[in-house]
Design goal:
This protein is of the alpha+beta class and about 100 residues long. The chain has 6 helices and 5 strands. It has a 5-stranded mixed sheet. A hairpin with a 2-residue loop joins β2 and β3. It is globular, with a radius of gyration of 13 Å.
Length: about 100
């Protein structure tokens, strides 16, 4: 298990910018290979994160290595999608709004 990825999701709620999330009503699930699954629910400008594999509007899948690179800023998420290293399922419009979450 990657403590870096776990820490990222545990601290995410504290680092989101509520103003950037205004108007977004969505759920995201992040599945990191060899790790756990996290669900992010955005409502009223707030993000709630929990460890969960519950259904979501948009699902993001990546290997541990790819996700760690994204978290460190060493991998551009859009490039990762084009290379097939980051897979998106569900509402693609919501996937484009992910930059507002991070």
């Amino acid at each position: 298990m990657s403590t870096e990825i776990t820490a990222f999701f545990e601290e995410l709620e504290q680092h989101v910018d509520s103003e950037k999330l205004e108007g977004i009503e969505a759920t995201y699930r992040f599945e990191v290979e060899g790790e756990r699954s996290w669900r992010v629910e955005i409502t009223n400008g707030q993000a709630r994160i929990e460890e969960s594999d519950a259904a979501a509007d948009c699902t993001v899948r990546a290997s541990r290595e790819t996700f760690e690179k994204i978290v460190r800023g060493k991998q551009n998420p859009a490039t990762a999608v084009m290379l097939g290293k980051l897979k998106i399922e569900g509402d693609m419009t919501l996937a484009l709004k992910l930059k507002q979450l991070f």
